[in-house]
Amino acid sequence: MKAGKKLIGFGKDMIGFVLLLLFLILFFNIESFKNTEASIAVPDTWLTVNTIFLSIVIEAVPFILLGVFVSALIQIYVKEEWIHRYLPKNAYAALLPAAFLGAIFPICECAIVPIVRRLIKKGMPLHVGVVFLVGAPILNPVVAASTYYAFRTDLTVLYARMGLAFILAIIIGGILYIIFKNSDQLKLSKEELVGITPVTIESPGRKMNRFKQTLYHASDEFFLMGKYLILGAFIASLFQTFLDRELLLTIGSNEWSSTAVMMAFAFLLSLCSEADAFVASSFGNTFTTGSLIAFLVYGPMLDLKNTIMLFAFFKARFVVTFMIVVTVAVFAAVMTLQLFIL
Fold it and tell me: Which segments cross the bilayer (predicted)?
């Protein structure tokens, strides 16, 4: 049994290494692939896949680094009793502080998964982690500023995005509490999560300082998360290249269908929440305002690359339920907004 687990773990590591190697080869040799006189001619569509893939990875890596370092700092410096002491004992009362907490940290959806996973490991209730998971990528100051600059001629989009994100984060957290209570929904054990614990933390006769522990934890997390990021980015780049956007524009001609289409578009494009407002603004003359808001709210909560990360580290039943709840909640909220306010 142990040998089988080691073999599976080795296989996953090798896949991650091959994906990383492929990324580096493409990154440093893109110009040679563009040369039509080369012995191997690469079709333009696959060059487009490569360009989009690189742009997603390069955009996401800084935030993954931010996320894993914050995760490592939480592992080393945050004590379990602190979380239990400062969070309200009432499950529903804890939802509001979690939403406000998400508005403080400049973290996008690329980095939020390792942070939430670590906080849950430290004792944060599952539903509070969910609020942070869906709220922080939208409510933070960096996203607010980028949305303001992208839609400064129509601040309705900014107010609707921030307001819906705050309310929906609380609602989604409450629904998932009703479904799962405080059951353990993390897939990996602590040993699999941290890596080689005798070296990275402490061993008899040897005590490692906290700075080195933080670096070890961050490096483990980065390579663990990075392979799923690269896989998700590659799949997203395929969708972006081969998806018929003219068909999407035809379908998205009314409030109901355009909202559904833009939510699907947000999921497949897997844009970073700090940059998605500028992409959304480019569709301003084609799609309804409500559908643009759906794009800006749904994408940071749930997209292709962070779905792969969620399935890697949380139980499948929880991830599927999370996806359904987020999708239904965002769609219902945006349609209500369009019918009664916009």
Answer: 56-78, 90-116, 128-151, 158-180, 222-243, 255-271, 277-298, 318-341
